Amino acid sequence: MFGVIRKALFQLPAEKAHELALEGLAKSHALGAAKRMYPRVDAPLRVMGLEFANGAGLAAGMDKNGDYIDALGDLGFGFIEVGTVTPRPQPGNPKPRIFRLEKAGAMINRLGFNNKGVDHLVGQVTKRTFDGVLGINIGKNFDTPNEKAVDDYLACFNAVYPHADYITVNISSPNTRGLRDLQGEEALNQLLRTLANRRRDLAGDHGRRVPIAVKVAPDLDSEAVTAIAAAVSRHQMDAVIATNTTISRDGVQGLKHAEETGGLSGRPLLESSTAILAALRDALPRDIALIGVGGIASGRDAAMKIRAGADLVQFYTGFVYRGPTLVAEAARGVKAARGNA
Ligand SMILES: Cc1cc2nc3c(=O)[nH]c(=O)nc-3n(C[C@H](O)[C@H](O)[C@H](O)COP(=O)(O)O)c2cc1C
Predict the structure, then answer these.
(1) For 129-154, what is the mean pLDDT?
(2) In which pathway does it act (predicted)?
(3) For the segment 286-318, what is each residue's pLDDT rounded down to a tens digit?
(4) Domains of the chain
(5) 172: annotated active-site residue
């Protein structure tokens, strides 16, 4: 069934296909169809102090506005991460801005955080009936200078805090100029210190300490990994998500669209993102969780991330190519690898 739908969707420009797929899912949700077809794999685990029904999650960027949480929730995910959201709505970069590199099981995107703003997202997440774990991924507006980036993260953090099971601080998308500079030692320490202080206040106000995850790029040298691990640890963050898309074009050279500007995701990212994950596991204390993302297209890939040190996994591009069956496969892969750990 998915094969037929995929074939039709892949005739369309990637972003149009994406919109139609999500609208189709929403219809299927209204009819109650998908939930019956894709029962959630029951493989409970506890990470960041949260209970997950299974370890397979939807990575950020597919549902940037929280418009499809319940529809996506029908597909058996243990957790869903919405966003990246910014304080103010913004249109993102001109289209076309998503490209499929089918032969490589990959995509390149330069969306640039197109989203309807944090107020819209909060309105949507408060309406959700999805009973899995919900992460909310926050960023900064494209026209906010890096000196003021902390203000944008704080504005989003304050707004989403009461509604999120965990909050992801995205400092690694390649499509917002200067964003990845926030991974530098000084900027990162300033950002995480500010968020940690604010969390202390909000935890008191709301009677709940919401875990914070920091999402990093795969394009990091070992010095950068060490500095990030130190900052994450110093400011008592709860998890690192490794990784976002890459600016490298290894594995896709010569393919159509390979030279498009943007972040590369999918199969060519599997090894490099897993290497960063493993380096982070070595550098971080055990009580800081790791979420492995990048290039997962099978249960075996998911298991590989767990063996490299991940506690949970997420995927985006593999889901586009493989469809909803990947969710249960990945959940079983996580379960099997954890069982053998
Ligand atoms: C079209 C597209 C949009 C994305 N948007 C976001 C985003 O808004 N925020 C974010 O943190 N990551 C975003 N990502 C990155 C994914 O969450 C993920 O980290 C990356 O694609 C690697 O995983 P994958 O190989 O399974 O796709 C996006 C990825 C794609 C393909």
Answers:
(1) 96
(2) Pyrimidine metabolism; UMP biosynthesis via de novo pathway; orotate from (S)-dihydroorotate (quinone route): step 1/1
(3) 999 999 999 999 999 999 999 999 999 999 999
(4) 2-335 (3.20.20.70)
(5) no
